[in-house]
Model the fold of this input.
Amino acid sequence: MATAADVNAMRRAIALAARGLGSTSPNPVVGCVVLDASGHEAGAGYHQRAGGPHAEVHALRQAGALARGGTAYVTLEPCNHTGRTGPCAQALIEAGVDRVVYAVGDPDPRATGGAGTLRAAGVQVEGGLLADEAEAGNAAWLTSVRLGRPYVLWKYAATLDGRVAAQDGTSRWITSPESRADVHRLRAQADAVLVGSGTARADDPHLAVRGIDGAVQPLRVVVDTGATAVRPGARVLDDAAPTLIAVAEDADPDLPAGVDIVRLPRAEDGRGLSVPALLDALHGRGVRSVLLEGGPALAGAFVRAGAVDKVVGYLAPVLLGAGPEALTDAGITTITEALRLDMNEAVRIGPDLRITATVASKEH
Done:
């Protein structure tokens, strides 16, 4: 039976894990808190970057001798393998902790088994504490392991009547400076930011993170099927962040030497590129989370492909009455086919409303 102290320690570990969002791929975000034998916090840490020490190592180093006889709280089952760093299960054993509490079992077949190793060494092990909260915080990595593709968050900004631009195509600015600044937070937490050819033509977007100290710049990805939208001099081709241009296999891009280009098959229906092929290519490059910032058509392609996991909508107190809608051609023709979402949060961002929702499980 978990105590209040157990819950508090794990919740702190989950908050620590979130500090690693955007900088640990292709590894998970993990947090760890170590309480000494008397129940006082002796050490805490999180996985800060791929290839660096894991959360348990940071926490154990801070705790030192006080870890002996204590309890370690970890958001993910301690790893059981040697990669660029050693197995955390063994580090916990050597530190002399008496008890390990973890939130989520490790689904990676290369690293799982840490709980068994700890038990074999006489350590008391308990799993599942605040599992739902820890899963939500580590959704990108868990999705990548379980489904073999990146986690996709679709972000859009619209008026209260669902328009993303006016009838003449103008869209700057529907939402407030506060909402636009908040989008940079989402970018900083993602491995890749993705737009389509329509957005590239209309906005010449930059897509890099601004205003967040220490942010790791995400990969900027433009889906330019016909290789006609991204031209020499486009803002995404500067050196502020890495960029990848995805084109059809038969396209003939006219871009400067050195621009990273990936050629992909077209979608079976002929509309754009194959979304599964695109996600597979990104996954192969270590991308575990994608922020989809593209327009209505690209969002529709991802919804048709069943490749949207989370939605963040910024709704401005504005009415237009006409103009492009936030989502088009999603393959939904009747209400029974609607993509149902679970509401997670609705908060004010300046004058706007930010709504966050995840795709509901199929049994809903």
The mean pLDDT is 93.
